[in-house]
Specification:
The protein is of the alpha/beta class. The chain is built from nine helices and 13 strands. It has helices spanning 66-71, 94-103, 122-128, 140-150, 184-194, 210-215, 233-242, 258-274, 294-310; strands at 17-18, 30-36, 47-52, 58-60, 63-64, 111-115, 132-137, 154-156, 169-175, 195-206, 229-230, 245-251, 315-322. The model is unreliable at 1-13 and 277-284 (pLDDT under 50).
Length: 326
């Protein structure tokens, strides 16, 4: 497919960008959705968001190649060593912790592997609960930070390169990682391989649903260009089935991104009028909105509850089990 947009960011031009087939069905048959902005930092760049005509998966194409993609995580990215004091609150992991604790009914220690740990409080909490813990992380600075802070060793690199023994874990967790990796199918296949028979996985990711369709390129659940993929419930369930998992439960938090996306768009528009959005000196100031003002958060709750009851809210927890031999 010919590239329909003009790209001004040198990181996504020439040899530092790549065209890829659909990661779900392998087709090279996509339609352009919109030119996506960098959701974290201001700038004039556009990234081409496409949707596979065969299976419906949404992804970036072309996308930054591996080395270029890593550059978008620096400069104050909120899940980096530059923001060592910030991490997802432990409450974010509560549904996964409860699921794994319910699985460990016998009280015997379990082994859990967290993929893409970052600086999350999840593994320290699981260790407190008696689990044997391990994790992977591609950012060397975060690996160093985490090991010094928690005395828990992480494997530095991709899960597929860790060389872990098959069937060596009772549980794996993939929390806010799947959208970021170049090959989500390969990651899930390896996660399945390292699980023992009947082992379980807890996964969290954004859910491409009503709000994504309504908000288009402004929807904050697609953090371009760091998110290479944008999964819906349907596309994610298909990928899990094809990589050896059986989905047992889905949980949709009562959160909506209509208000978040509106505040983000307003901040970006204000900077544009002030002349700062395209100013390189302003590039270190994130425009992402991690929390809403109190009144807006309360105003957004009824819509969030409605979407959650419909199974259509903008993020989802997925609890799956390794499929046995057929």
């Amino acid at each position: 497919m010919a590239d329909p947009f003009n790209f001004s960011n040198p990181l996504v031009l020439g040899e530092q960008s790549e065209y890829v087939p659909c990661a779900l069905c392998g087709a090279r048959d996509e339609e352009s959705l919109f030119p996506a902005l960098d959701k974290m930092f201001p700038g004039p760049e556009r990234f081409s968001a496409v949707r596979c005509r065969r299976c419906g998966l949404v992804y970036l194409n072309p996308r930054p190649a591996r080395e270029a993609h890593a550059a978008f995580y620096g400069g104050g990215y909120y899940c980096s060593a530059d923001n060592a004091a910030r991490a997802q609150p432990l409450e974010h992991y509560r549904p996964v912790i409860e699921f794994l604790e319910a699985e460990r009914k016998s009280g015997a220690p379990g082994r859990v592997l967290d993929i893409g740990t970052g600086n999350s409080p999840f593994l320290p909490r699981m260790r407190e609960l008696g689990w044997q813990v391990g994790g992977t992380e591609v950012d060397a600075d975060l690996v160093d930070l985490f090991s010094k802070r928690h005395q828990i060793e992480l494997y530095h690199g991709e899960l597929e390169d860790a060389g872990l023994a098959g069937g060596s874990f009772d549980a794996v967790t993939v929390m806010g990682v799947l959208e970021h990796v170049p090959n989500p199918r390969s990651l899930l296949e390896e996660a399945c391989r390292v699980l023992r028979p009947d082992g379980v996985m807890g996964l969290w990711c954004f859910n491409r649903s009503i709000e994504a369709d309504l908000l288009g390129r402004f929807w904050l659940g697609f953090d371009t260009p760091r998110h290479l993929y944008s999964f819906s419930r349907r596309t994610l369930e298909r990928l899990l089935k094809e990589t050896g998992f059986v989905v047992e439960k889905l949980l949709f938090p009562p959160v909506n991104y209509l208000f978040y996306s509106g505040v983000w768009a307003a901040v970006r528009l204000r900077r544009r009028f002030r002349g700062g959005v395209h100013d390189p000196s302003d590039s270190g100031q994130p425009v992402y909105v991690p929390t809403l003002p109190f009144l807006l958060e309360k105003a957004s709750l009824p819509l969030g509850i409605l979407l959650a009851k419909m199974g259509r809210s903008s993020n989802m927890y997925v609890f799956a089990r390794k499929r046995g031999p057929t």
